Amino acid sequence: MKKNDNKKVLEKKNTDAERIKKDSNYLRGTIVDDLKNEITNGFTGDNFSLIRFHGMYQQDDRDLRLERHEQKLEPRYAMMLRCRLPGGVIKARKWLKIDYFASKYTLYGTIRLTNRQTFQFHGILKKKLKDVHKMLHDIELDSLGTANDVNRNVLCTSNPMESLIHKEAYEWAKKISEFLLPHTKAYAEIWLNQKKISTTDKEPILGETYLPRKFKTTVVIPPYNDVDLYANDMNFISIIKNKKIIGFNVLIGGGLSFTHGNKLTWPFLAKEIGYISIEKILFVAKAIVTTQRDWGNRTDRSNAKTRYTINNFSLEKFKKEVEKRANIIFEPIRPYHFISRGDRFGWIKDINHNWSLTLFIPNGRIYDKDNELLKSGLSQIAKIHNGNFRLTSNQNIIISEIPEKNKDKIEKIALSYGLIKKVSNLRLNSMACVSFPTCPLAMAEAERVLSFFITKLENIMLTYSVEKETIIFRISGCPNGCGRSLLSEIGLIGKSIGRYNLYIGGNRIGSRIPKIYKENITTKEILVHLEYLIKTWSIQRKKEEDFGDFIVRKGIVKKIVNPIYDFWD
Ligand code: SRM
Ligand code: SF4
Q: Is the CB of 478 under 6 A from ligand 2?
C-alpha cells in the first residue's frame, strides 16, 4: 500500500470530534446543564462525546430498543462508567462500596471486569451519576480519562506482590497514569461540585484538543505477556538486573481494530524502537505521546491511531522525533522473551510470605444468578480481607496479600460461592468483549455466546483426546476487536447477528496476528470448520505443538508477517 501523502492529510478538514474538543472549554461543554435537564435521560449535542473523557459512555439497552420504539418511548438511556485503576489494584475493603453501588444504583446489578484491568458499571441513570463519582472519590478512585482521546487505563503485568520487581513495575504504571492524565479541573467541578478555580486550564502534555485518538500504555514484566502488549500504543518491557528493573525496551504502535471491507485499516503489532534506562521513562512517555499528539491525523479518525502515524511518517522518523523531544538516544533493544499470556490460577506465595489466589471470572462478569453467587462471594471475601483485589487483563481477579491464617477461610468462601470451580484450560484462557445488549457498536453476540462456543469446543477436544490442551479462543462482537480476537489462536469477529469472520493462526504468546480462514459464516458452519481443524491438529501435530503454530506450519492460512499487506491478502 502506498504511504499517505502527509500534505494532503493536512489540507483536509479536521473531524467534528476535533471541533468538539476545541469548543469544550477543557472538556466542560454544557454537561452541567444536561444534568439538570429532566426531559431526557440522555446527554445532548457535544456532551454525548465529552462525557467519555470523564469515563462514561451513554448507551441504551439494545434488547429493548424495538419495544421502546414501538411504544414511542425514548430509548432506555443509561451510562456505562469505566473506573481508572492503573495496574488493576484496589483495596478489598473499597470493593464493598463498588459492590453496593452496583446492587443499589445500576439497572443490571453487575460489575464487569474489563480486559484492561479495571471495572465498569453498566446502566447508571443520569440522575445517579454524581452519586457514582462521589462514591469513587470517597474511596480515592476516579474515572477520568478512561475513554476517548487520551491515555487510557495503564496496564501492568498482574500480581505485583509476587516479587519486588512486580511492585516496582506497578509503581511505574501508576506514575505514568498520573503523569499523562488530563489536567482539566472540569471533572472535579462537574462531578464533585468542587469550585471553579480557573476558567482556562492548561494541558501541558495532552494539549487543548487532547490526542487525535485513544492511546494505550503497558508496563510489562517478561516472561508474562498477560497484558497483551502488542495491542498497545506505548509499551515498556522491564529489563531486570540483580533483581531490580534497570530500564525498559520501548515498543510503540500496536492496535487491533479495523473496519470490515476497508483495506486502509489494519491491525498492527507494537514495534521495538529501543532500550532506555529507568530514569528516562517519563521523558520518553511524554515524547511519544506529544509526537502522536502533534503528528497524528486529525482529519480522519480511522487513520488517527499511533500505528497510522508511524505508517504515515515512518518508524525511523517517529523514533528520531521522540529522541529529540526526550533528549535521549535509544540504545539497542535488550534480550527478552515471553512464555505465556494467561493468568496463573490458584495459590501463589508472595515476597512477604503471604498468599494470593487467582480466580477465574467467566467473561469478567460479576453477578449473582441461580447458584452462581460470584458477586456475593467476592463481597464476603472483601469483608474479611485486609489486602488487595487485583484485576487482570484477562478479566479475572486476584485476591492478594492473604496471611497464612486466613488462607483456608478465604478458600472456603471462594468454594462455597462458586468462585473456584474445575474448568477446562480452554475456558480459562477464553475471552469475549461485552457486545450486546449494551455496546452500541455490536454487530454480533460475544459475551453471551462465549460459554456456548466453549462447551461445544470442549466436546470436540474431548472427542479427539486433546481436552487437556488449551487453545486461545476469543470473540469480539465487531471489528473494533475489544475481545482481542486478533491476538488469538482462534478468533471470531462479528459481522451481523449470528455471523462471524473466523480467524486462525495467532500464537500462544500473542505476537502473531491470525489470518482470516472463512468470512461471514454461521455458528453452525464455524463449529464444522473448527471440528475439522482440531481433528487435523490432534492427528498431525508435532509433539506439544500449539494449535496456532500448527495452522501456520501446515500453511492452512498464510502467516501474517506484515499486517499492512498480509491482513487483507
Ligand atoms: Fe473497546 C469501543 C468495550 C478493550 C478497541 N469498547 C468500545 C465501547 C466503548 C463501545 C463504544 O465506543 O461505544 C465498548 C463498550 C461496551 C460495553 O457495553 O461495555 C468497548 N473495550 C471494551 C471492553 C470493556 C471489552 C471487554 O470486554 O473487556 C474493554 C475495556 C477496556 C478498558 O478498561 O479500558 C475494551 N477495546 C478494547 C481493546 C483491547 C485492549 O485494549 O487491550 C481494543 C483493541 C485494542 C485497540 O485499541 O486497538 C478495543 N473499543 C475498541 C475500539 C477500536 C479503536 C480503534 O482503534 O479504532 C472501539 C471503537 C472506537 O474507539 O471508536 C472500542
Ligand atoms: Fe462493542 Fe465491538 Fe468492542 Fe465488542 S468489539 S465491545 S461489540 S465495540
A: yes
Which residues does the chain have with pLDDT short of 70? Answer: 1-11, 196-200
Residue 238 Cβ < 6 Å to ligand 2:
no
Q: From CA 436, how far away is CA 389, in angstroms rounded?
A: 27
pLDDT of residue 198: 55
Pocket of ligand 1 (CB under 6 A): 57, 59, 80, 82, 114-116, 118, 120, 146, 152-153, 214, 216, 228, 231, 255-257, 305, 395, 433-434, 438-441, 480-482, 484
- Cα of 482 to ligand 1 centre, how many Å? 4
- The domains of the chain, with CATH numbers, are 56-143+342-421 (3.90.480.10), 147-341 (3.30.413.10), 427-566 (3.30.413.10)
113, containing H or E segment: strand 111-113
DSSP 8-class letter at 350 = -
Three-class SS state of 458: helix
Long-range contacts of 42-51 (CB under 8 A, 24+ apart): 42/74, 42/75, 42/77, 42/126, 43/126, 46/20, 49/17, 49/20, 49/148, 50/20, 50/24, 51/79
Query: Taking a C-beta distance cutoff of 8 angstroms, is the pair 143, 56 a contact?
Result: yes
Burial status of residue 430 (CB atoms within 10 A of its CB: 0-12, 13-18, 19 or more): buried
The answer to whether the beta carbons of residues 486 and 529 sit under 8 Å apart is: no
E-strand spans in 428-513? 431-432, 473-476, 490-496, 499-504
Strand ranges of the sheet holding 119-124, from the earlier edge strand across to the other edge: 56-60, 77-82, 119-124, 111-113, 365-366
Q: List the end-to-end C-alpha distance of the chain, in Å, as a whole number.
A: 11
Of the candidates 84, 280, 298, 482, the residue annotated as catalytic is 482
Of the candidates 362, 345, 392, the one whose C-alpha atom is nearest the C-alpha of residue 218 is 392
Q: Measured between alpha carbons, how far is 463 from 174 in angstroms, rounded to an integer?
A: 47
**Cell output for 329:** 538516544
Residue 76 CB-half CA count within 13 A: 18
Cα-to-centroid distance, 50 and ligand 2 (Å): 20
- Predicted confidence at residue 153, as pLDDT, reads 97
Out of 28, 52, 82, 515, which one is annotated catalytic?
A: 82
To the query of whether residue 439 is one of the catalytic residues in this protein, the response is: yes
C-beta of 438 in contact with ligand 2 (< 6 A): no
Identify which of 439, 488, 493, 500 to mutate to test ligand 2's pocket (most ligand atoms within 8 A of the CB): 439
User: For residues 219 and 562, what is the distance between their CA atoms, to the nearest angstrom?
Assistant: 25
Which atom in ligand 1 lies closest to the alpha carbon of residue 481?
A: 44
How many helices (H) and strands (E) the chain has is answered by: 19, 22
Q: Are 358 and 348 in contact (CB under 8 A)?
A: yes
Furthest-apart CA pair in the chain: how many Å? 69
For residues 343, 349, 352, 357, the Cα torsion angle rounded to the nearest 10 degrees is: 50
Q: What is the pLDDT of residue 387?
A: 96
What ranges make up the beta strands (E) of 212-286?
217-220, 234-241, 244-252, 271-277
